[in-house]
Amino acid sequence: MKLLEGKNALVFGLANKRSIAWGITQAFHEHGANIGISYAGEVLKKRAVPLADSLGIDFVESCDVSSDEQIAQVAEKAKAHFGEIDIIVHAIAFANRDELTGPYYDTSREGFRMAMDISVYSFVRLSHAFQPLLRKGASLMTLTYYGAEKVVPSYNVMGVAKAALEASTRYMARDFGPQGIRVNAISAGPIRTLAAAGVGGFKAMHRKFVDMAPLRQEITIEDVGGTAVYLASDLSAKTTGEVIYVDSGYNIIGIPENFDDD
Ligand code: NAD
Fold first, then answer.
1. How much is the mean pLDDT over the chain?
2. Fewer CB near the last or first residue (10 Å), C or N of the chain?
3. CATH code for the domain of 180
């Protein structure tokens, strides 16, 4: 059964075939959505365009989400191409590499500003820009991580940004609710992507994750894609403002099974 037939979806944040945005795009495609893709800028064009071509996607637009102007331009183009929009996926985050190691209190003012701007405010601004195009029943979603709630070594300013992103999800769910539009976040477990590679100690943490998570299974971009289809579809029609975990159950554990007691 195809769950997204007749729905127009825009996915922001495709960098390469490891991107969560790509897992979501493929899952949306399998479920019959009409898809548009956006990538960060010319450097990523050579990766984004062939991936889009492989699924027959012809709306592929560059957009640096730190620019209100570029966001407005993509919204204009989307209006001309799709008319109305049913689904927006925000799979974007950025922090300077040197902010993702060492103590959090060393975060620079500019590093803090940039992480919040690109990883949090961009979701707010995209929602603002696309609001006039959103159909009743539309679904907006973003990607977050457990480091928003608990301290994850080296995640630092990105953890603080994800906390703000989750709060933004709730505020926007309240704003959009009366229009029948839903806003949710997917909290994904660790996946080896370009963004994750920037987090100090990610590889070691990724290895330990499987031992601690109840399901003892790694998270894939396909796993996240499946949950994104659920959130985009009418199956989740009465779910808004939520953070949905795709983490093999990791977040429910207080003390790991193999806790060393000697
Ligand atoms: P990724 O590197 O493939 O995707 C991050 C995207 O953000 C890239 O496409 C990059 O171009 C884009 N981006 C950065 N700055 C931008 C800008 N100024 N304008 C437009 N786009 C910009 O990595 P990913 O892991 O797929 O990340 C997608 C989302 O998932 C992020 O929000 C990330 O924090 C979140 N997430 C990732 C993991 C993980 O372990 N990989 C876990 C939980 C949540």
1. 96
2. C
3. 3.40.50.720
